[in-house]
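Record type: monomer structure entry
Structure origin: computed from sequence
Chain ID: A
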Amino acid sequence: MSLPPRSKSYRPNAGVMLFNKKGKVFVGQRNDIPDVQMPHPWQMPQGGIDKGEDPLSAAMRELREETSVTSVQLIAPAKDWLQYDFPPELSNKLMKGKYCGQKQMWYAMLFTGPEREIDILEPDGGAHRAEFCQWRWESLENLPGLIVPFKRDIYLQLTDWFGHIPADIQSGKIPEK
């Protein structure tokens, strides 16, 4: 038995796993998903890729628009694109029902600036609305337990692919440029 053709496509998206100099990862608590409503409102910066934009440029733009961060160095891209489906109960609500989910390219980056550069409440100098209400540095292995369940497999794959980076940062294998 074959499945019916998909009527919606996946939204192109780019994300950043931002490491600090101690090997911890930036996560932000989404301000549109209260913790009492959904117990996993934390995520890494991510967002849509504009038409004609390459994924790395989109990742850098989304990082700036959500956190104000521009002081970064690229560590590595993900090994491949990852995708997830929106849950059926949300698929017609998210992004006006245009997409069935998101197809993402992720990048591991090292934060090279001072922490005062991070501004989630007035990101990019107030040019963009705040998506996060708080943020913190988190251990890589804790990330899958912080994300909404329908994105968990993405975070599990990323922790596998980028799992060596915290040790590489701490041992000096990834020097700050």
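Annotation 1: Confidence is low (pLDDT under 50) at residues 1-5.
Annotation 2: The CA atoms of residues 26 and 137 lie 5 Å apart.
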